[in-house]
Amino acid sequence: MPDPTNPAPVLARISSDASCLHQALRALPAERGASTLAARLTDAQDLAGTALRLFLTLSPQASRPSPTDLLLLHRVAQIAKAAQDAAAELTAALARAVENQRRQAAATSRRVVLIGPTPQQFIESAADLLDRILALCDAVSRDRPESPCH
After folding, report:
1. Contact between residue 17 and residue 43 where contact means Cβ atoms under 8 Å apart
2. Is the preceding omega at residue 2 within 30 degrees of 0, hence cis?
């Protein structure tokens, strides 16, 4: 359990994990297998879980939280939401990729109608959400200079 008076180590881990996942998604070709995409999805879910646990650790800290404490809680909640949204986008990418593979396998002619948005578009959306997490971590770092994210 993280020290509620010093969220910096957990925020640093969130930032590092988001950065690594962001790089992995940017390098992920659309035609990669479902297992690779599922692994990235699991990473996004783990990231969301870490942010939610941090939120729970910080929330009961004071009966009358200061505006600074409330701002930190707000930013951690936004980080958790962005991570959950990224996981949802990756879930949609996985489902779409599997559906498109099924359609291609079942096609009796060369012409296959694939449904959109494409898995790659969902992946790009998830990467954009990870950018948001990194920006929020930077904002926390600016708000709490003693609690750097990086």
Report:
1. yes
2. no
User: 105-141, pLDDT tens digit by residue?
Assistant: 887 777 777 777 889 999 999 999 999 999 999 999 8
The residue type found at 70 is L
Residue 128, both tokens: 């954009």
- Per-residue tokens: 110: 């060369």
* Tokens matching residue 60: 């009961």
The pTM score is 0.87
For residue 71, the one-letter residue type is L
- Axis-axis angle for helices 8-26, 119-143 (nearest 10): 150
Q: What is the 3-state secondary structure (H, E, C) of the chain?
A: CCCCCCCHHHHHHHHHHHHHHHHHHHCCCCCCCHHHHHHHHHHHHHHHHHHHHHHHHHCCCCCCCCHHHHHHHHHHHHHHHHHHHHHHHHHHHHHHHHHHHHHHHHCCCCCCCCCCCCHHHHHHHHHHHHHHHHHHHHHHHHHCCCCCCC
